[in-house]
Every structure is written in C-alpha cells, then in structure tokens.
Design a protein that fits this description.
single chain, 10 strands, Multidrug-efflux Transporter 1 Regulator Bmrr, Chain A, alpha+beta, disordered N terminus, 2 helices, 171 residues, 2 domains
Length: 171
Amino acid sequence: MVVPLVRNKEKFKNYGGYTMSYKCELVDKKAQPVLTVRTRTAMQELPHFFAKAYGAIAQYLGELGEQPAGAPFAAYYNMDMQDLDVEAGFPVRSSLPAKGEINAGEIAGGKYATRMHQCPYDKVEPAYTALAEFLKQKRLEATGVAYEIYLNDPASTPAQELMTQIMFPIK
C-alpha cells in the first residue's frame, strides 16, 4: 500500500533528537466516510491489532474493487494504556457496506485542532500535550476522541522519520 509522504520538513523543529512541528492550528474538516475495525486492547498489542485491522480492511477494499482514499488512521476513545478503546481504519471515497468485523462509518465533519508530528510513535506524547495546551489557550474543549493519521509506512520508514497528524475534534 502506498500512503502520502510529507516532504516539506522546513517548518519542523528539533526536539530531543526528534523533529516535530510546534504549530497547532484549527481547521474545518468535511465528514469523511471510513471503514474501520474497533477493539479494546493494551498499548503493547497495538502493532498486532493495526496489522490485522488494516490488512482485513485492505483485503475487503480489494474485494470491492476499491482503494483507500487516504492514509490509515486510528481513533482513540480513551487513554487507558492497558485497556485502549481504539478504532483503526482507512478513509474511503464514498460510503461502503460493513462486513463482519469491518464497520462502515465516518469521521464527523467540524472543527479540529491539529498538529503534525515527526518521531517514533512512542514519542508522540509531547504533541498531545501541545494540542491540549493550545485548546486551553483558545478556551476550546475537545470531544475526548483523538485521531492519529499515519502519513508514512513504519515498515519502510525509519522510526525517527515517521509522520503523524494528530487531530482532536472540538465540541
């Protein structure tokens, strides 16, 4: 699978040996149809869950003669690292039928706080902290869901070059 790569790294700064943007911004997003698999799992099991979920969705898209309409993502509905409520999926061009464990849905349209982050996945906490502080300064409140959009492939990208867009929907 090919996912888009971020090529303009000039706007990123160095942080503890990892490069990341400090720019948080508010954006308006249109509703996006998606196919997802949702589960509860411990943080250390995420790689296995993601591989299984993304593989199942990619296979199903192939059966339908469809392709993802963008990069894979995860939605985190809580931050309990031993019992994460997480959904993994792909955006699709239009609503498609669910099948088995694969759910059809959408990422809601509306206002989002967003931030790009370049570093290994286990070093993403500063981006969450920066977004939370950004919302506090703007006197806005997040819904409690956090989206991570994975812009390059961890199987072929060095960990320090992994690009993740983090998004918090705003109430």
